[in-house]
Design a protein that fits this description.
0% strand; mainly alpha; 95 residues; globular
Length: 95
């Protein structure tokens, strides 16, 4: 039996960016990325005692759950979809 996760509301603009990004992923990776990032984003929101999933929850989920093999593609898609990922990117160094 599939593990049913409780649902949590998403901040509207963050959800739009997220869905736009997921649609841009290669078909082969789309479903698994969506599943793991949604789950982790909700966990992130719950950990900070948030009432809804926000952009910061999504970005933390991408950086913790997406394998480094796909880092370049992920960064490109984050930029194309308008995410301000810099503060959440462990490899990002401010000048």
């Amino acid at each position: 039996m599939a593990d049913q996760q409780p649902q949590m509301a998403w901040e509207k603009n963050a959800l739009i960016k997220y869905e736009n990004m997921i649609r841009r992923l290669p078909l082969f990776h789309r479903d698994i990325a969506d599943e793991v990032v949604r789950k982790k984003a909700m966990q992130n929101a719950l950990a900070r005692r948030g009432a809804m999933i926000e952009e910061s929850d999504i970005l933390r989920a991408f950086f913790s759950e997406v394998p480094m093999t796909f880092y370049g593609l992920m960064i490109r898609l984050l930029e194309e979809t308008g995410f301000d990922y810099g503060p959440y990117d462990p490899g990002h160094h401010k000048s």
